[in-house]
Design goal:
There is one protein chain. The chain is α/β, with parallel strands linked by helices and 370 residues long. Helix content is 40%, strand content 17%. α9 packs antiparallel against α11. 53% of the residues are buried.
Length: 370
Amino acid sequence: MKRELRNIFFFFIILSIFSFFVVSCSAKKEIKDGAKKSDSTNSSLAEKEFVLEMPELNDSYVPKKSAYNFYFTYKLVHSWWDAVALGMESAVRQYEENGIYITYDYLAPDNVSAKDQVQRISNAAASGSYDVIGVDVADIDIVTPEINRLIESGNKVMTFSSSDSGKENGCKRIAYVGNTHNFEDGADLAQILCEKLSYKGQIAMLVGSVGAPCHEERAKGAKSVFLKYPGIELVDVKYDDDSEENAYNFTKEFLSKYPNLEGIICCNMSNPVGAGRAVLEGDKKKKITIVGMDHDKRAIEYLKDGVIYALALQDCFGIGFDTITTAIKIADGVQPGTIYPEKTEEKTTIFYKLDAEFLLNSLYGVIDYK
């Protein structure tokens, strides 16, 4: 089986994500249709009830072939996409148990580049080797025309993972598997931040990559909430290009430039780590409230230590699993809206300090004996 997984700890660290997303991607108190909020004051997630739902090939669809080959490319080499890959692997194993054999390339650059992404999917199509090409869109304006060109040339192209380019963007991609509520996720985090600040104070924002749909949508969602409260002032917005180091440096700049800053909202997985490190080093833990995205171990440790107030975790495992099952149907010529949706409904769950030990144990096997 062909894939490029550069994190050597993939099978050791990410394997435990399976157990987490199986048992805990659904907390009980719903904020909106997208993200769900766990109770931040009364009990830890370890004490809550969970629904045990391991993704399974439980639909009635029978693949038309016995072997498939897919090509997937995503924004950059990062542990977030390693977790997506684990879901893919689970689906592949289950298909193999039923006599269906799947190979795939799973490739990305070290740094985000929409032009690189266009070249990758163009080369994949030119090779004629793949039943379906999947792309996690790095920039709608740059990548959409190439998706449309490939579709018009007879290729089957889907979008997956964190970012889509849909019909509203003039994109002809067949289907999308991933987070369909990035705007809501950003709005939910912003609402939590505003509540924590009693609806007044200066806030800065770290977005991620310019043009990345998921990052831009979360930023838009957050801004829509900030506009509701006259006492909230969004003083600065920076794009860190998915770089923890850039986020760290931008946060140090925030702390120096805005002495009255009280909150930072982070729109990807890397920037909560960089922001948390800068706030901790600047001895601003008690002054600055940080909210952000996803399951980086250091971010969860910051959550446990009170450096980060809230984290919204996406169901990466489910996204990966559903990407494979959807690619099979697309390869077989099945159109969305029949036995699978054009866009999936993946989950995001928001966690707090009391949840951190449970997350560290479930995701990374960390046990606090104190």
